[in-house]
Amino acid sequence: MTIISDIADQTNLLALNASIEVARAGNAGKGFTVVASEVRKLAEKTTDATRAVKGAVAEIQSETSNSMSTLDMTARAVDEAMVLSNKAGSALVEIRETVGRSANHIREIAAASEEQSVTFDHVVQSNEEVATKRDAQSEFEHPCRSAIAIFVQSKDTADEWYKLSGCTKRSMVYRYNAIIGLEMRSRTWARQRVEEPKYRGRGSHLFWRACAGAGDACLCSNNGARDDRLRPEVLAAESPSPARA
């Protein structure tokens, strides 16, 4: 633009010099006046065009500068967007890991709940079995306690009888062994009825037969001999074999 402006100025100066020479030449230079005028107009147009181009170039430079600023801002925005995108990606990875851990915890809680449910069912079943055994034992312990109470109550009467009859120590040993054996077997019989299915539902007549045998043990002679009516299962170490009611 500077070169074009210099050329326009020089052309304008040349037109001015031509006008001066035409004026000095008088009539001889009238023909050159037209040429000098056209050169001057061309110089003026060139100057105007140069100014217009210069203004356009200035505007272009300004727009270019603005565009550069916009591009810089866009580049910074892109960089910030990249940073935010990376952070968002990291956050998504953390969220996925957290969701995975939460899912594992939920599965563990579900498994623990299922185990607790099974354990609770076992506890309920155990309580029901204990209640059933307790009821069965209580049902059979009543006659046992009654029989034992009868023999304990009859102890004083038997003692008086032995004092009056002069029964020997040997006969008393037979009698007490029979009573102790009866008590032990009655407890064993009660436990078997509760714990072993084959004894459940049996009648209590075996127990009362054993009681009758123990009663026979009290009938001893004065010399301490055991009565023949004493039943062997009363003094045996084992309980009588279960029989069907």
Give the structure's gist in a few sentences.
The protein has 245 residues and is mostly helical. It is built from 5 helices and no strands.
Question: Helix and strand layout, with pairings?
Answer:
Blueprint (H helix, E strand, L loop, with lengths): L1 H24 L4 H136 L3 H27 L9 H13 L14 H4 L10
Descriptive report:
With 245 residues, this protein is an all-alpha fold. The chain folds into two domains: 2-88, Methyl-accepting chemotaxis protein (Helix Hairpins, Orthogonal Bundle), CATH 1.10.287; 128-235. It contains five helices and no strands. It is rod-shaped. Mean pLDDT is 68; it is low at 199-245.
Descriptive tags:
Helix Hairpins; mainly alpha; 0% strand; 83% helix; 5 helices; 2 domains; 245 residues
Helical amount among residues, as a percent range?
A: over 70%
Which geometry do the CA atoms define?
rod-shaped
Major sheet description: none
Count of alpha and pi helical runs: 5
The rounded distance between the terminal residues' Cα atoms is 135 Å
Structural class: mainly alpha
Give the SSE order as H and E letters: HHHHH
Arithmetic mean pLDDT: 68
Find the count of extended strands (DSSP E, 2+ residues).
0
Number of domains: 2
Low-confidence segments, given as residue ranges, are 199-245
Percentage of β-strand residues: under 5%
Radius of gyration: 66 Å
